[in-house]
Amino acid sequence: MDLFKLSYYPFLAEAKEWVKEQGVSVEEILSDVIYERARRRAIERIEHAILKGTISEAPLTNEVDCAMEIFSYPIARMIAVSFENEYVLRRYALAEAKKAYERMKNEDMQFIVHIAEEFGMEIKNDAIHFSDYLRYAPTWDMKWKLVNRDLKDGYVSVAKQEIARLLQEAIRKKIYDELAYLYAPPEIKRVFYNDILRLRSKVVVRKEKKIRGDASFPDFPPCIKAIISAVKSGKNVPHVGRFTLVTFLNAIGMDEDEILKLFSKSPDFQEDKARYQIEHITGKISGTVYSIPRCSTIRTWGLCYPDERCKYVSHPLMYYRRKRK
Ligand code: SF4
Predict the structure, then answer these.
(1) 127 pairs with which residues across the strands?
(2) Residue 174 lies in a domain
(3) Residue of the CA atom closest to atom 8 of ligand 1
(4) 114 and 12 housed in the same domain
(5) CA 76, CA 85: separation in Å to the nearest integer?
(6) Which residue owns the Cα nearest ligand 1 atom 3?
């Protein structure tokens, strides 16, 4: 695949391989002046994803443009992860997938099948295996319900554009799942400190406008579950426990009123004071969205109650994302 194509689809295995072959370290990408364009483009990817729900097109006229575009993708992923915010991760994964869809619509069938193969989809004579179809089709839409489709010998007939739409969902899922395993080095927060700060305040505003988290209690890590049950049973939870809980619930998209409701059972509950503390931690009045403490910190506070899954995580959000996969 040529560099132009790779830059349109930087999530493909071939693009990752290309980056690896260049032998550039994360430190170089984050500090060398040569990669300044890639760093700027990475922030642009995230900003567009948050504000517009898609990724803007970059003008690509030569191989250097393409190389910067490809490098910007792994940087953007690390930036997305360092937000420690479910809303940002979901929005970013969807935005990248939508951008790919817009491109794929204009590709020929051979290329579409090539991408589909990478996602393990079985496509034969303009038809897709029904199990792949069901996995990725937006079946809340009548048009996509299996009963409304031509199904023959286990294959559903699909037009090229429809395969691209199914691939959009496969790409979104792949990107989101990969982010769950990604740890952003601390340098990311340092290099992009101002951008992250600026965009975080926009995330707060957007969440207020529309997002209500689809929080799933069974997937919460044991430390968070323990704090919640202590709060619910009216026990006095130390400040660091409350802080951990609020940062976590905020990161997964729960709004302030829902968080406040949880704390209403605390023995010393005072609505004004609790609201002030929550809004301070979530950045509404402080302008700073506080990060969830890492496992090592929670452990020193005596609030860690690890289970088997905890062996593989270093951060409560990582636990949650992996369990939700
Ligand atoms: S290891 Fe981490 S996620 Fe697991 S209980 Fe302890 S602090 Fe929570």
Answers:
(1) 124, 157
(2) no
(3) 223
(4) no
(5) 14
(6) 316
Tell me: do 90 and 53 sit in the same domain. yes
Both tokens of 35, joined, read 């990669």
Q: How far is ligand 1, taken at its centre, from the CA of residue 80, in Å?
A: 22
The reply to whether 225 and 306 lie within a common domain is yes
Q: How far is CA 307 from the centre of its chain?
A: 24
Two structure tokens written together for 46: 């995230």
Ligand 1 probe mutation, 310, 311, 317, most atoms within 8 A of CB: 310
Measured in angstroms, how far is the CA atom of residue 244 from the centroid of ligand 1? 11
- The answer to whether the predicted template modeling score (pTM) of the entire model surpasses 0.85 is no
Residues 10 and 82 in one domain: yes
Does residue 318 share a domain with residue 259? Answer: yes
Instruction: List the domain range (segments joined by +) for residue 239.
Output: 213-324
The reply to whether 229 and 316 lie within a common domain is yes
The DSSP 8-state label assigned to residue 100 in this structure reads: H
Residue 129 has phi, psi (to 5 degrees) of -60, 140
Claim to verify: residue 68 and residue 140 sit in the same structural domain: no
From first to last of its 325 residues, the chain has per-residue pLDDT tens of 889 999 999 999 999 999 999 998 888 999 999 999 999 999 999 999 998 889 998 888 999 999 999 999 999 999 999 888 888 888 999 999 999 999 999 999 899 999 999 988 888 888 899 999 988 988 777 788 888 888 888 899 999 999 999 999 999 999 998 887 787 888 888 899 888 888 887 776 555 444 444 567 888 999 999 999 888 888 888 899 999 999 999 888 788 888 998 888 777 778 888 888 888 888 776 667 788 999 999 999 999 999 999 998 999 988 998 887 6
The best mutation among 183, 314, 319, 323 to test binding of ligand 1, ranked by most ligand atoms within 8 Å of the C-beta, falls on 319
